[in-house]
Design a protein that fits this description.
- There is one protein chain.
- The protein has 477 residues and is of the alpha+beta class.
- It folds into 4 domains: 7-98, 2-Layer Sandwich (Uridine Diphospho-n-acetylenolpyruvylglucosamine Reductase, domain 2), CATH 3.30.43.10; 103-221, Uridine Diphospho-n-acetylenolpyruvylglucosamine Reductase, domain 3, CATH 3.30.465.10; 225-339, Alpha-Beta Plaits, CATH 3.30.70.2190; 347-424, 2-Layer Sandwich (Alpha-Beta Plaits).
- The protein contains 15 helices and 19 strands.
- The strands form 5 sheets. A 5-stranded antiparallel β-sheet has the order 5-6-10-8-9. A 4-stranded mixed β-sheet has the order 1-2-4-3.
- The mean pLDDT is 96.
- The structure holds flavin-adenine dinucleotide.
- Flavin-adenine dinucleotide binds next to strand 3, helix 5 and strand 10.
Length: 477
């Protein structure tokens, strides 16, 4: 439904609800809200709205629903698919949740916390720790991404192999629906089989069904022992073999298992100050793996050492370094977490956030790498990621000495090849980053038709006027 009021009337309505200072229109002030993290999209907006309470969000959505104004929810604006960026019309509003950043309660006995959508993830991790509990969601962007964005993208990150995706940590949600009604479902129950699980529809919906204003999260016992190693594996199949060995021998204490190619080590050591080569030699593939336990006296170091020795004897590894202290552990993680930044510093890249059954990874990487090497001379493959979850960031970076426009020109062909191969292997074209604006066409191409029909029916039922994040995930009707 097109907007039925003038800009002047709309702005007066927003100011009536929020007051003057929470309705931002100054061009310079709103500029950062209008560009996505990867700078793929630059939109325009009638205003950036900064509500401070669920009541304000409710009134804003009721107003926008009645007047046909598109609403783009925004958290930390770290998303990779342009989901939090308004379109170019200048007729949408950005709804920034940053002022709703209160931890409402922590129930240590119930291992749960209730927090508002605008809480920065790292602050929530600290709040849980202060209550002697652990919030396992952890991403490279945790210093700026927000809970609402994490849940709306169903973020993954570094601990999924042990604790699951963002959705697996949600016990309850508070959501403002498109028409302003509030779904108050902030229960903290682990068991609740009372009909359809409506709240789960908002997890991964990327703001297209409603605005998440708060969540009740599941917490875990705090890890008190950690063992971390940087390991050179023979190939991707050896990495999968090592993962299985560690899972079997450690009693499932594997909390992270990240694949890192030599080229990513080269990029980080070149572009990120303080990052150094973790092993003496250079190897095509490495793994950063970590075991954790809530028992302080769990002998994780010896467990990891003995598994690595077995793997070495079995011909899976060439070299390994066990972190001897927290400083070394932090150095290993700094290398891993700065890969995206190093890639950006190197030049433009084409990103594929894909998931495959773990056992299919070696054959996929072999086939896809060979195709890239044969067909894309002006770029290099930087394939890394959360292999413990079958998730690879299969990225193609423009070579430093070539014109980046060559990569742009061949982007469609490369994307088609990679995604077709992913589909042939029974994988997903979006493992953890979502669809946003970037992959609307790809979703249409690869999603089963019946699933797409159901998605459209859900959208129509939750948001009949199409005001919630129009054009994201699904094409606007
Ligand atoms: C360095 C770096 C590392 C990263 N590593 C990972 C990683 O390991 N795993 C991973 O999954 N992602 C990763 N990301 C991507 C990104 O950080 C995640 O997608 C994150 O969950 C987005 O949170 P945000 O608050 O920034 O959301 P935004 O970018 O602001 O928004 C993302 C989407 O959610 C919607 N949204 C935001 N808030 C709400 C709300 N309250 N209600 C309804 N909809 C809302 C927006 O409309 C948009 O569609 C990384 C990004 C960077 C820059």
């Amino acid at each position: 439904m097109p907007a039925t009021v003038t800009d002047k009337v709309a702005l007066a309505g927003f100011r009536r609800i929020l007051g003057e200072s929470a309705v931002l229109t100054d061009r310079e002030t709103i500029a950062p809200y209008l560009v996505d993290q990867r700078r793929l999209y630059e939109g325009a907006a009638l205003a950036v709205l900064r509500p401070a309470s669920v009541e304000e969000v409710s009134q804003l959505l009721a107003f926008c629903n009645g007047t046909g104004i598109g609403v783009v929810p925004q958290g930390g604006n770290t998303g990779y698919c342009g989901g939090a960026t308004p379109d170019e019309s200048g007729r949408q509003v950005v709804l920034s949740l940053g002022r709703m950043a209160r931890v409402r309660s922590i129930d240590a006995a119930n291992y749960s916390m209730v927090a508002e959508a605008g809480c920065i993830l790292a602050n929530l991790q600290r709040a849980a720790q202060a209550a002697d509990r652990y919030l396992p969601l952890s991403l490279g962007s945790e210093g700026s991404c927000q809970l609402g964005g994490n849940l709306s993208t169903n973020a993954g990150g570094l601990n999924v192999v042990r604790y699951g995706m963002a959705r697996d940590l949600v016990l309850g949600l508070e959501v403002v629906l498109a028409d302003g009604r509030v779904l108050a479902s902030l229960g903290a129950l682990r068991k609740d089989n009372t009909g359809y699980d409506v709240k789960s529809l908002f997890l991964g919906a990327e703001g297209t069904l409603g605005v998440i204003t708060a969540a009740s999260l599941r917490l875990m016992p705090r890890p008190r022992a950690t063992a971390t190693a940087f390991v050179a594996v023979r190939n991707v199949a050896a990495a999968v073999g090592l993962l299985n060995l560690l899972r079997e021998t450690s009693g499932d204490r594997v909390s992270s298992f990240e694949l890192i190619p030599q080229i990513a080590i080269d990029l980080t050591t070149r572009h990120i100050p303080g990052v150094s080569q973790p092993l003496a030699g250079e190897y095509p593939w490495c793994v950063l793996c970590e075991l954790t336990s809530s028992r302080a006296d769990d002998p994780l170091d010896s467990m990891l050492e003995s598994a690595l020795r077995d793997a070495m004897d079995g011909g899976l590894l060439d070299d390994a370094a066990l972190a001897q202290n927290e400083r070394q552990r932090a150095a290993f993680w700094r290398l891993r977490e700065s890969i995206p930044e190093a890639q950006r510093a190197e030049g433009p890249s084409l990103k594929h956030d894909i998931a495959l059954p773990i056992g299919a990874l070696p054959r996929f990487v072999e086939e896809a790498s060979a195709w890239i090497a044969a067909h894309v001379q002006h770029a290099v493959l930087v394939a890394y990621g959360h292999v413990g979850d079958g998730n690879l960031h299969f990225n193609v970076n423009a070579r430093r000495d070539t014109d980046p426009l060559k990569l742009v020109a061949s982007a469609d062909e490369i994307r088609r090849y990679v995604h077709d191969l992913v589909a042939a292997f029974g994988g997903s074209i979006s493992a953890e980053h979502g669809i946003g604006r970037l992959k609307v066409d790809e979703l249409e191409r690869y999603a089963p038709p019946v699933e797409l029909e159901l998605m459209r029916a859900i959208k129509q039922s939750f948001d009949p006027n199409g005001i919630m994040n129009p054009g994201k995930v699904l094409r606007s009707a």
